[in-house]
Every structure is written in C-alpha cells, then in structure tokens.
Write a structure and sequence with these properties.
8-stranded mixed β-sheet, 616 residues
Length: 616
C-alpha cells in the first residue's frame, strides 16, 4: 500500500458518476488510465480489496495522485480513455499495439505508373491498396503482380535514366516502358487497369476480359499475342485457386483468443475482397479476469486509432465485420462508437455461420498454435535463464545485454549492443555505436567508449542483470574498470560481467570458448553440451551479427563516397546530382558517357573523365 498518497481523503470526495480516471507517479507522469460507470466504487477496489495481480500491486505502490473526468455516456468515457492512453502511453496499461505502421501498396500517377511499398502518411499522389498485415504480404503480392502483369517497380530516378532495357525486361517481369517502342502507352495502361482489379479482388473480371482479347487475337491470326494472354490467364487462375474463398467481395477481420499458463494470444486474420492477406499475433501476460478488458482494449486501439484523422481511403479499407470467438461484454458499446466515428456500422459477430465460421475456425487454430510455440520458446528461455543464474550463483536474470565490436583493420569501427530478456531477443532495444577518436584496432578502447555511451546516464532500475562482452581477459578488465568509474554496480557483483573469448589456436570453433568473470579471472571452459554455454553463444552471435551488418553498411557508404571524391571536378553537390539522377553508384558505374552527360552540371568532358575513372 502507498502510504504517501492519502487515498482515504481522496475516496471520501470522489464522485459516484461515470467517467475516466488518471493515476500519476511522484514525478507527475501518468502511469495508468481507466474508466468506470461508478468512479468511487471502481477506485475503491484498488485500495480496499486484496489484489493478487502483481502488476496492479506495483501500480498502487507508485500512485501519488489521481484525477477524474466525468462523462455523460459510456461512449464518451470509452473515447476519452482511448485518447488518454494514446497520448500518455501509461506504463501499466495493457498496450498490445506495436509501433509499426501497416504497409500499403502504392500505385503512382506517373505517365507509366509504378508499384511500391508505402508506410505511414499518404502524402504521395497516387492510389493506395491495403492495409496489409506485414511487409512480407506486400512483397508477395507485388511479386505476383510483376509476374502476371509486368508492371515496373523501379524508382523514378532509375526509370528516367535508362538507355536500354534492364534485366527485369529480359526475363519478362517488366514491359519496359522506360524505352520507347517496347510497349505502347495504351497497352501499359491496360495492364495498370488489370492491376487495380487484381488488388480489389476482382479476378473474374480480369479473366473475362483477357479471354475476350485472346479470342480476338486468335481470330485475326495474331497467335503470339494470344499466347501471351493465355499465359496470363493461366497464371492468374493458379493464384486465384490458392485463396480460401475467392471472388467474394467481403472485408472482414477474424480475431481468436487463446489463453494458457497465464499468457494470452490474440490472433487476427486480415481478409479483404475475400482474400486472406495475412495475420498477426499479439501476446500478453494476464490473469483470467483480465481477458475481457484486454480484448476490449485491443479492438479499441485497432479500430479507433486515428479517430477523426482517418482518411476516407482508410475507412474504405476497414472491415465490414469483425468475427470474434470471445464473448465480449462491451461489444455493443464498441459497435456504436465505431459507427459514430466512421459513419458506418462494423458488426462484431461472436457466432458466425457458413464460410465465416470456417474463417473463425482457422483463426482459432492459428491462435492455439501460436500460443503453443510462444510458450515452448518462453519456457525454454526461462529454463536456460534459471540454469544460468544457478551456475553463476547470482539472482534471477531478467535482462541481459551483450556488446561486440566490428572493424576493418581499425577502420569504420562499429560497436553493437543487443538486449535479451525473459521472452528472448528484444530487437527494438538493439543499438549500434559509431566508435571515434581511438587508436585504430584498439578493441578495448572501443568497448570502453560503447559502455560509457550506453551506461553513462542510465537509471539504476534499467541496469541489466548480466552484461556480456565479446572479447578476452583484456576486454573483461577494461569493462570492469569502466563500470567502476561509472559506479554502475548497484551492489556487489551486480550487474554480473562476463567476457567470452574464442579459444586460442583452435580457429574459434564453437564450444571451445573461454569465459572470464569475477570468480574465474583466468578463464573457464564449459563443456560443449552445456545449456548455459549455448545461451551465451546465441546471445554473443546476435551481437556479432548486429555489429557486422552495421560495419558493412558504414563501409559501403564510405566506399561509395570515396570513389567519386577521387575524381577531379566532383564536389559534394555534383556527387549528389550524379547518385540521385543515375539511381545509385552501381548504375552510374555501368552508364555510358552520353547518359552521364545528361546529369545537370555535368559537361561532356567531365562525363568522359568520370567514365574513364570507373573503367581504369
């Protein structure tokens, strides 16, 4: 119980009316937002009821102030709660939404339109199709479209500077609109019309039109064109047959909830124009009595996100129905709020029939399967973390951070930091650090700089339980010295520091690593079958891959810049013009003198010099 907050005085004065409440911590941060039909009764349960939920118990201990807003209706309370959660992102509210925006397929309005993946705000002029559940679903759809209709996917900077057809044209995946004479404007626009119909799920209309054109070509003895249309029809029919239900103009989202071992999986299928675009799973730890609130929160955040800022195109692509295998108590409240916001009704069905029942069965199968996989992975990780804490004789491990350094003979040095918690790799917390002002190749100095930048201003509560350094005894000593200077150790041996070194003269073979830590300053080799070693190896490899990929990106960037910098007469502005108009260094290197000379500010003489420097 929080003794610093006078809850008795507060509760004696709070209203019995309907409304929304906000809870604050000692620094004035909103830590929880809720709503209730009776504010006094609801808020009393936090302080006068025995709570078994650890999350709520910790929340109550941190409450320093509460304010309330009275509303006239439940819909007003629901909307206000949603807006507050979106605004404050309270740490104790259950938020299932991730920070990634849903991708769309974008069709530009150029003379020869192109297709691409688009995220976030729709500021470009053109048409948007979606949303899709993830980038993989978009890429798969674009691959189908390119195979069947051969529409260009290249950037405009590449398209405008082509002097001959690219490889995509040679293999039949692009009509080649960049080169005059390869395809007529009418034929290209006809294929664009087919793409629109395909993305709207109207495959029957495309096939009917293609059949009509094919028969017309056959009757006029234009067999080559007829054969091409025949291939299009076959490819389109093959893809259509793979759909669970084809050619039905239905837009539905199917949500199934699976719960076991204190973990809930909420799985959603996205179905547009009768096609399953993909799915996504969300996981949350909770108690049985929280299920209804979590599902309600999820649907609110998914369909009320954006509120009045929703564009007409977003509204058009929202589902007409939501199928749910969970008996949501506030179902009609949500239906009315969505109708009020969008101007049209979205039904929430809990007992669908026919094909909709089959969709719900499929979603339920996916949710159960996803939960089993999650729990299997979760308990494996939990087991290994327990084994690791037991082996090193330290307290329970909830968070591990690992550092590695990558460079090329001391150049373009990058340090990586990866984070591993009770659920596995926490990729959103991965970081890279550009290492500067050190002696080239000095890994100890690189580690020292990375640790300083990572932990210089870190809060005590955010210090990980274990820190792993990819390196040997010298790196271990340097890290220990750095932590002593930063005064990062909360208590004796915490965080627990480990350095992992490849064994000498053994080609760095896995299973032969040497571990350095406080109790074994001379090093310890674990057996190859040790699960503790396997966990350390996995985390170390993640850090290594993250560092290597960052180093390669930096090296490529420096390489691209240095090649042009060596050419006399090429400054920053001309370098920018060249790369932008030619579509990158690789295309510039393969361009002709005439193509290079078309770039603004580049004379014919300079174009010859550039071309010669690349060929030498």
């Amino acid at each position: 119980m929080n003794d610093s907050f006078d809850f008795k005085t507060f509760l004696s004065n709070v209203t019995n009316q309907m409304g929304v409440y906000r809870m604050y911590d000692k620094i004035g941060t909103v830590i929880y937002v809720g709503k209730s039909k009776n504010l006094k009764k609801r808020l009393s349960t936090y302080f006068y009821t025995q709570v078994d939920n650890k999350r709520i118990e910790v929340l109550v201990k941190n409450i320093q102030n509460i304010d309330v807003t009275v509303t006239h209706t439940e819909i007003e309370a629901l909307l206000l709660e949603h807006n507050y959660i979106k605004l404050y992102k309270p740490r104790y509210n259950i938020l299932l939404r991730d920070d990634k925006s849903y991708p769309y397929i974008f069709l530009s309005n150029d003379q020869h339109p192109r297709l691409s993946i688009h995220y976030r705000k729709k500021h470009l002029k053109g048409e948007y199709f979606g949303p899709f559940p993830n980038t993989s679903a978009v890429r798969k759809t674009l691959n189908f479209v390119q195979q069947i209709f051969a529409i260009r996917l290249c950037e405009n900077s590449v398209y405008r500077n082509r002097s001959r057809p690219c490889l995509q044209y040679q293999i039949g995946r692009c009509l080649g609109p960049c080169i005059d004479g390869l395809v007529s404007q009418e034929e290209y626009i006809q294929q664009i019309d087919y793409v629109r119909l395909f993305l709207y799920g109207k495959d029957d209309q495309i096939i009917a039109h293609l059949l009509k054109r094919m028969h017309m070509y056959s009757s006029t003895l234009r067999f080559e064109e007829a054969a091409r249309l025949r291939d299009q029809i076959q490819a389109l029919s093959h893809i259509t047959e793979k759909q669970f239900v084809s050619n039905q103009c239905i837009n539905i989202d199917v949500i199934s909830v699976a719960y076991d071992c204190g973990v809930m999986c909420l799985h959603i299928l996205f179905i547009r124009e009768g096609k399953i675009l993909g799915s996504r799973s969300y996981f949350s730890k909770l108690l049985d009595n929280e299920l209804n609130n979590v599902v309600h929160t999820f649907i609110s955040q998914l369909y009320l996100q954006g509120d009045s800022n929703l564009q007409s195109n977003d509204i058009d692509h929202l589902p007409t129905d939501i199928l749910l295998d969970f008996n949501l108590t506030q179902r009609y409240l949500l239906i009315n709020r969505i109708k009020h916001l969008l101007g049209r009704k979205i039904n929430i069905q809990v007992k669908p029939s026919g094909n909709n029942a089959n969709y719900l069965k499929l979603a339920r199968t996916n949710s159960v399967s996803a939960l089993k996989s999650y729990l299997a992975k979760y308990f494996t990780i939990q087991k290994r973390l327990v084994e690791m804490s037991t082996f090193f004789k330290i307290a329970a491990i909830k968070r591990i951070e690992c550092f590695d350094v990558s460079h090329n003979n001391g150049q373009q040095t990058i340090a990586s930091c990866i984070v591993f918690d009770e659920k596995g790799p926490l990729r959103s917390a991965y970081r890279r650090y550009n290492i500067v002002n050190i002696t080239p190749g000095d890994d100890c100095a690189a580690i020292e700089q990375a640790l300083n930048r990572r932990y210089n201003k870190i809060k005590v509560n955010n210090i990980p339980d274990v820190i792993i350094i990819d390196g040997g005894k010298s790196q271990f000593s340097k890290a220990k010295q750095t932590f002593n200077k930063l005064n990062i150790f909360r208590d004796k041996g915490h965080p627990f520091l480990i350095a992992v070194a490849k064994a000498r003269n053994r080609n760095g073979k896995k299973g032969l690593e040497t571990l350095f830590f406080e109790a074994k300053p001379k090093g310890l080799c674990l057996p190859c079958h040790s699960s503790v070693l396997h966990l350390i190896q996995y985390i170390r490899d993640q850090a290594h891959q993250h560092a290597i990929s960052g180093h390669r990106k930096k090296q490529e960037k420096v390489k691209n810049s240095s090649l042009l910098e060596k050419i006399k007469g090429i400054g920053p502005k001309r370098r920018q013009y060249l790369l932008k108009h030619m579509g990158g260094l690789r295309l510039l290197m393969s361009a002709s003198i005439e193509d290079i000379a078309q770039v603004p500010t580049i004379s014919l003489a300079l174009a010859k010099r550039i071309h010669t420097s690349f060929k030498s």
